[in-house]
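README, section 4: Worked example with a bound small molecule

Sections 1 through 3 covered apo chains. Here we extend the same pipeline to holo records, where the ligand is supplied as SMILES alongside the sequence. The molecule in this example is flavin-adenine dinucleotide. Nothing else about the input changes; the structure line simply encodes the ligand pose together with the chain.
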Amino acid sequence: MIELPGVVRTDSGRRVEAADIMIATGAAPLVPNLPGAAGALLSDDIFHLASLPESLAIVGGGYIATEFACLLHRFGVAVTMFEVGDRLIAGFDHDVADRLERALRAQGIDIRLGTRIDAIDTTRSRATLTLDDGTTTRFDDVMLAVGRRPATSGLGLAELGVAQGADGAVEVEVDAWGEASIPGIHAIGDAAGAMMLTPVAVRDGRRCIDAIRGHRPDQPEDIVPTATFTTPECGSVGLTEAEASAAGIAFEVRSKAFSMLTAVLSNDPQDVFMKAIVARKDGRLLGIHFFGPHAGEAAQMGAVALSAGLTEAELGRTMSLHPSTSEEVIGLGDPDMPIHGPAETAEALAAE
Ligand SMILES: Cc1cc2nc3c(=O)[nH]c(=O)nc-3n(C[C@H](O)[C@H](O)[C@H](O)COP(=O)(O)OP(=O)(O)OC[C@H]3O[C@@H](n4cnc5c(N)ncnc54)[C@H](O)[C@@H]3O)c2cc1C
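The generated complex, written as structure tokens:
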């Protein structure tokens, strides 16, 4: 714990003094306040199971829930997901999220959207879940994946008067350089309530060390790519269509759906979808979203385009690499550009 600004005490009682203290304690799975929740598995527990359950309920529909659902389903576990919202991976563009939902259902994962779990009973060797309509349903086990919370309890922050998030959130409130409300105390990454992603934590750590050393260079705009490593993957960078609408931005949507050219002759056509959000006023790319194999890789390349502030015309001047999937993003804004693979019909796209 932090005893005083400049003084840390370890659990063995050792006292360590330092002019600056950086809190980088990460986050821990959120255990919701519902009866029996403490008996459920958390994401870390899955790696320590002696054997796999035949059936598993996953509570939550975010990226951790969907990734574990895919993984365990492929190991032969009958997976049922319960999500209180009306979509999986809520922060992703709705077209990408809907495609993931359809793909997971087609694989055999049972997905119950708009369903809240009100109680869990794991006392009789199996897991009984009580749903919000009062019915119960049984599985071999249940895993909670309803979010993660900054791991700052036990550090003595409240006693020191370090400002923390409102509404019971426990992230350390920091400025752009990671400094907390008390000089000499800093926080980065998940503990500071940043977007809970490894590269964000790494960037925060570097900025914080720079600032402690007296360097405070201009900070570029944050362009944070993200992905779900589901099967298939989803990748995203920049504004979703819903975020652009909510921000009152005038924009155009460009999208394409097709099967991967390299999988055309196989019995397993791999569906790909890509979508760009383009500013109407100047053609600048505001967001690019991918669904399909290697969507995470594509989102990383999309982040280069967004970070460089490219317009769709500038992206379209890039020479494509054929045959690749990401070459299709080059011609997203060009209706005359042929798709190198079987496209979904315009009617099918419009019907979505
Ligand atoms: C299942 C899962 C999948 C994920 N997948 C991705 C992904 O694909 N891509 C991505 O970018 N991010 C992913 N993340 C998120 C990513 O892991 C975190 O955002 C990132 O690790 C945050 O870094 P951090 O340094 O803030 O904390 P962490 O990496 O969590 O490090 C915190 C460390 O502090 C230690 N600690 C905690 N309390 C104390 C204490 N009191 N004293 C001493 N040590 C303490 C912890 O044991 C831990 O080792 C995933 C997270 C989970 C749970």
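What to look for in the output: Residues 61 and 236 are 17 Å apart (CA to CA). The chain has ten helices and 19 strands.

Section 5 describes how to batch many such records.
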